[in-house]
Structures are given as structure tokens and as C-alpha cells.
Design brief:
The protein is of the alpha+beta class. The protein has five helices and 14 strands.
Amino acid sequence: MPAECKGAILWIHSITAMHPGSGTALGAVDLPVQRERHTDWPVIPGSSLKGVLREAHTRGGDEAATIRLFGSPDDKNASAGALSFTDARLLLFPVRSLKGVFAWVTCPQALRRWRRDAGLVGVEVKLPDPLAVEENQALVPQGCPCLDKDKNELILEEFKFAAEIVKDGATVKPQPIQGDDERRVVILNDSDFTHFARHATEVTARIRLKQETKTVEERALFYQEFIPAEAVFYSLVAEAEREAGALSEYTAPGHAQIGGEETTGKGLCLLALERGK
């Protein structure tokens, strides 16, 4: 992707738990989710995302437009598509709260990366300044439903965080989070955020049944990891220089299914394009 290009941010807001699987078990979890190597945060591979969007576009019936935007599906008449998609990066992670049900947590590293990435496609991002948070501290907007006003603290999972109120004009406002929901966005220290991104996912025990008897197969217990519902990711979408105007012709589907376990209702996401200027 060039330093500056015509592009957009594709927002992905999970409505049900999601399993973009890695296919490799590295610990107690047999089927973990895909994670970035350097941050250990969950990630949705760009190849998976492109495949989902291509399938959705194919249902529109315009095969020529699909090939132009996403490329040829076979090697015989191979041609690159006009649109490219990056891996979808985590921005907001939902965490259980003692008050207010849940909070969306993020951190300075994730926010600065979002601002940098958004700038590549002409989207301006405003962040609180200064953007500094100590461990066991949280920057919260005025009116945050998760805040214990008497003690001026938040309790997320089993952890207590001292709260610092930020001005309304300095709150984080990604496009998928609108209205009163903006007050749920809490900024934690990078290390605290990483802890939740590693350990606050859903891990579900699964079994396999014998088809004939409907009894449990021997040694068929396994554990599968899911990114919880309400997580927010973003991907950058760029158009090739040779296909000027392709992005303006493209309309993202309002929703899609991403990752595994489609038949059990997993991976349902809301999608939205935020176009650059």
C-alpha cells in the first residue's frame, strides 16, 4: 500500500462471538483464534476478509464487476483485483464490568496505530492529548456507565482501575460506536489492554457425538476460543492505481459472517466503509 492512496477504512463490529481460527494449538486451547505475532492481539487475516467480501459481492450477480474488484477466482485466467484489504486490526475489546454491564477497552498503542493507519487512506482521527495511562489506571469519558462515581474507579473482570475523567471533546469516537455507546470506551495502559486481549476471550468446551448412537466419542472433548461479541476491528481498503474509481463503485455489505462455526451462529458482523477524503 503506498504512503498515501485512495482508500477507506472497513469497520467490523462483531454481533456474535467470532472464530478466525489459526489452525494450530499452542497451549491448552485446541482451536485458538489468530493473533498478531508481535502484540498477541486477535486479528482477522486479510485473505479471510477478502474471501468473505468477494462471496457477498458475487451474490449481486455481476460477475464482471466481481472479477474487476476482487480478481479472477482461477489460475487459468489469473488477474489481480482492483481492491486490496489489510489484516483487520483490533481497536476495541469488550470486557465485563461490575457496573454498566461491559466496557470497550483500548490502549494508546492501538489508538496511535489506528490514527497512523487511517491517515494512509485520508481519514482523520482525533485522540486525547496527552495520551498517557499508567498501569491500573483508566481514562474514561464523562457519564461512563461503568464508573463507580463514589469510589472513582472501574472494576473490569476482577481488576480495579483508578479512573481519570477526560473531556467530552477528547473522547475516542470510532465510526461504529455512536451516541451513548461512546461513553463505554475506556483507555487502559498497553499492558492492561494486552492482558484482556489474551485472557478475556471466550473458551468453550466442545464434544463430538457418534452419529449412530448420539453418545460422546472417546477422547472427543476439545476447547475452542472465540473473540467475544461486540469486538471492533478495522481493515484498510485501497484501490490499485490502474483501476481509478473502483473503490467509489464498491459498496460493502451491511453484514457478513466471518470465521468458523457459521452453522452455530458465530461470526455475524456489521460492516461499514468510512471513506477517505
